[in-house]
């Protein structure tokens, strides 16, 4: 049976994820507050980001960058900028 959540991304009720797809506190927040539809939108953006910026998921900095983009996209309404990646300054 489907579970519904109030999706913070779409600001409306929607079908919730079947299980927690991301670890930790952020994963719980996503599970409780993000619909399947919003998660699918993020997955498309995430794939584009990984490809465009040539992110390596074995690299902790790249994972942190992606997590930050995910949180901004899902919870703060930020659109993902795919053009022109500027690497972080050391």
From TrEMBL:
It comes from Bowmanella dokdonensis. The keyword Aminoacyl-tRNA synthetase does not apply. GO terms for biological process: cellular response to oxidative stress. Belongs to the Fe(2+)-trafficking protein family. InterPro entries: Fe_traffick_prot_YggX (IPR007457), Fe_traffick_prot_YggX_sf (IPR036766). Could be a mediator in iron transactions between iron acquisition and iron-requiring processes, such as synthesis and/or repair of Fe-S clusters in biosynthetic enzymes. Necessary to maintain high levels of aconitase under oxidative stress. This is Probable Fe(2+)-trafficking protein. It holds the Pfam family Iron_traffic.
